[in-house]
Amino acid sequence: MLAIIALIPGLLAGWIGLTRGPHAAFLTVYLPSMMLLPEYYRWNAPGLPDPTFGQAAAVGTAVAFFARGTPGFRFHSMDLLVYGFALAASISEYRASGYSDAQNLMFNMLTWVVLPYIFAKSLIEPAGHRVRFAKTIVICLFIISAVSVYEFRFGTTPWRMILDPFFPGQARWVTTFRWGFARVAGPYGHAILAGIVMVIGYRIQRWLEWSGAWEPKPRFAPWLPISQGRLITLGLLAGVIMTMVRGPWMGAILAAMLVMIGRSRQRVAAIGAVVALILFVGIPGVIWFLDYVSVGREGAETVAQESAAYRWELLTEYSEIAAERIWLGWGLTAWPKVPGMPSIDNYYLLLLLMHGLIALVCLLAIILVMLVRLTAHGMRQPLAEPRGSSLAFTLASLYLAVGFSIATVYLGLQAVPLLFMITGWGIAYMDSGVEGIGTEAVAPSEPAPTHRFRRVMT
């Protein structure tokens, strides 16, 4: 019964949303709940989907959002890809295991994909909450970085220490180690997911810092010899480093290269330099990589080479299995397992196995379309001043980081709603026509009350 505390954010979001509006519920309850509280704890409701903290908050926010007439919502062609992804995964699991087993995945698709996308598209840009949304994500991740120093040092996450007694037997995630240190996972289950989320937060923070969105000195420590923006940047960088995950690190490097194009005064020349780098370095690098992984796990000389060879073998061993049910997949866990290959360390392959080609194409289209559209949008704009304050290149870089990372690792838990929130935000941003850090409000956050009291003076 203690697990019922997972409903608290939902009740709070519903109450705040109905009294103060869905914008307040989204920014003050849903977003912090999703970022700060683990999504691997659930309240097991007999006969119903089992909500997590963040999912409960999403439902509470949705109640207020639809009760208030869906403020800020506009249909966009990207909706078809997002809804198509969620629908394809839901139908796949329903066909594979029936409704009673599929209801949790359907609920995940609603609360991790559809609702976060709708909230971000409707409640950020139309209401002028660009900076507030970005700062909320960054502050939450700064807190996680600070708390995670304990996990980095002692190998135990404080989130599990506090919440395990409320959810006995639910936390199956374990702390992994690399180079003698714990790989920080925070509230995200695994260091891989924490690395993806931290890289996203770091890039958003760099945009905030370059845009001058922070006060010069921290209010809580004005005596520090460092600006508030730089302090938060260093805190998030420490968080990225403490995860010690190679895939998201490489994704972060690619993201930084794209942002550098946006910062350049000669962006066309910068793109040409990147293309040249891909041709003269990337092609030989691919040839070297194929030779590097072709030795197989048995012939690997280092742990890193063995890991790379394993990922290559996954593609060859599982391709025929995926082809047997190419359109809708096998379901979450029902695909035939290859002996000695229990972990699918490539989310694109995993998604193809679980939910088939339709879901995979939708996800790939979302990533590629947003990457291209945001980059093109940034190229059409004048050079941002201060340099680096182009939101278009920042958001585009997130798709490059995530798109590369999940080719080597897993995508799940909070990384999923965060990706779809970024998508909703990016769509609304490009439609807004507002650059930089935006304005305080380009539209009223809430509709005016139908009736007001009159003051009568006698």
Automatic annotation (TrEMBL):
InterPro entries: O-antigen_ligase-rel_domated, WaaL-like. It is found in: Membrane. GO terms for cellular component: membrane. Its main location: membrane. Residues 233-364 form the O-antigen ligase-related domain. It is a multi-pass membrane protein. The chain crosses the membrane at residues 102-120, 132-150, 231-261, 268-290, 347-371, 391-413. PANTHER family: LIPOPOLYSACCHARIDE BIOSYNTHESIS PROTEIN PA4999-RELATED, TEICHURONIC ACID BIOSYNTHESIS PROTEIN TUAE. This is O-antigen ligase-related domain-containing protein. It comes from Thiocapsa marina 5811. The lineage of its organism: Bacteria, Pseudomonadati, Pseudomonadota, Gammaproteobacteria, Chromatiales.
